[in-house]
Design goal:
Elements lengths: L5 H13 L6 E4 L6 H11 L7 E5 L5 H9 E2 L11 E2 L1 H4 L4 E5 L6 H13 L1 E2 L8 E2 L3 E6 L3 H6 L5 H7 L2 E4 L10 H15 L6 E2 L1 H9 L5 H15 L4 E2 L21 H13 L4 H16 L4 H8 L3 H10 L18
Parallel strand pairs: 1-8, 1-9, 2-5, 5-8, 10-11
Antiparallel strand pairs: 3-4, 6-7
Helix pairs in contact: 8-10, 12-13, 13-14
């Protein structure tokens, strides 16, 4: 890991204080800020470093699959369970388990996870026999869990369990001293992989990298370095090689007219149908869900809500079923 900026140096000091303990850790930060790298560093500095480090993205799997991945399952527990399988809690026994996007964990699984943390034992899907486990949990999220608790999308008791030692990762924009050291680090890694001699940045390239906002944080920087090395010959990179202006969102985006939307809403208000807000909310969610080709992760991102909130709304309006009662439609007319 690279800790050159004063903000990052203070973060490293905090990690070094927390790591030797067995305290549950909550890492909070935007996507791409290096939450898993921090989790791995905590594990490497802990007394559990010689044992397994497991990692699971809670937003990447369905509720049934997450339960099986976390706790394991017995043979025949469900269709396709041809053999018994250990879950991550058993696999990472005596080690550390990193749970990414913990804010997207379904409420039903939150209760089961809380029980595991309290009792220190797991029960496989399809079994009644508990098995003791000794695992340190390092959780991560890019959402405000306090707000999720207030909205009843995240269990308060589980939040308190996680919120023992909290680490806040600042966006790369707020720790500019890390940008060039990280860039050189990625140049070395990908340069060696691609068989290049030592590749350096020109002063202009360094200035371009430092002045860029990096909305995608460290992940965007890493991908920019990798992409540039793939397409640019030579061992000296200039600012024109990175084409960051093509990656960054335009500064002046033409405003989308909402006149037709406002007109439609005014007409609905005049009609005053029952459950007006639900009609509007359902329509917005259905349109976004269809636009994202029924991808829940992309829909939640588009609407700027958590996946748990989206899943609740989809179930509420019957959009998770292939057949069912069709909801009210908001027609936009000029």
């Amino acid at each position: 890991m690279v800790f050159e900026d004063p903000v990052s140096r203070r973060l490293l000091e905090q990690i070094e204080r927390i790591a030797p303990s067995d305290a549950t850790v909550l890492v909070i930060g935007e996507t791409g800020t290096g939450k898993e790298l921090v989790a791995r560093h905590i594990h490497a500095l802990s007394k559990r470093s010689k044992y397994m480090f497991g990692a699971l993205n809670c937003a990447a799997l369905s509720e049934n699959l997450i339960e099986s991945e976390l706790f394991g399952h017995e043979k025949g527990a469900f269709t396709g369970a041809l053999t018994s399988k250990e879950g991550w809690f058993e696999t990472a026994d005596k080690g550390s388990l990193f749970l990414d996007e913990i804010g997207d964990l379904p409420l039903g699984l939150q209760a089961k996870l809380l029980r595991v943390l309290q009792e220190r034992e797991v029960v496989k899907v399809g079994s009644r026999q508990p098995k003791p486990v000794d695992v340190r949990i390092i959780a991560a999220t890019n959402i405000n869990l306090e707000e999720a608790v207030a909205a009843q999308h995240f269990r308060a008791d589980l939040y308190y369990r996680f919120n023992v030692a909290t680490i806040h990762l600042m966006p790369l924009l707020e720790r500019p001293g890390d940008i060039l050291p990280l860039a050189r680090h990625f140049l070395k890694i990908y340069g060696e992989r691609l068989g290049h001699d030592e590749v350096k940045l020109s002063p202009g390239a360094e200035l371009a990298l430092v002045n860029y906002d990096w909305p995608g944080n460290i992940r965007e920087l890493e991908n920019a370095i990798h992409r540039t090395l793939l397409v640019c010959p030579g061992n000296r990179l200039g600012p024109e090689d990175f084409k960051l202006s093509g990656v960054r969102a335009p500064e002046h985006v033409p405003a989308v007219s909402v006149d037709s939307l406002e007109t439609a809403l005014e007409r609905l208000c005049e009609q005053a149908p029952p459950k007006l807000f639900e009609i509007i909310e359902e329509t917005v969610i259905r349109i976004a869900f269809g636009y994202c080709e029924k991808n829940q992760v992309q829909t939640a991102k588009l609407l700027d809500i958590s996946r748990n909130v989206l899943r609740h709304k989809l179930e509420l309006y019957g959009m998770l079923q292939q057949v069912g009662k069709r909801g009210s439609v908001l027609h936009l007319e000029r």
